[in-house]
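Aim 2 progress update. The chain analyzed this quarter is reproduced below.
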Amino acid sequence: MTDRRARIEARLREVLAPLHVEVVDESQLHAGHAGDRGGETHYRATIVSARFGGLSRVAAQRLVYDALADELAGGLHALALRTLTPEQWQQGV
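Predicted structure tokens:
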């Protein structure tokens, strides 16, 4: 069984065909906080995908949450997102 970070990254690659994706497990920073279940619960992701073109930030993030519905239902407690189009990424937004 792969770890959750790897599963999240693989699913994002599959659904969003990103030019760049980075998923960081920040669970250790939330030990003792709400949602802490001993690890693999809190993540930060940067995703650069053409699929975000023309979408509001909320709509782009909704695509990510929809892609990760199984992980969210299975114990993923928090996911901080940075969603960018390739143009925004090139501009350093």
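The chain has one domain: 4-23+32-45+56-88. The chain is about 35% helix and 20% strand. These observations will guide the mutagenesis experiments scheduled for the next reporting period.
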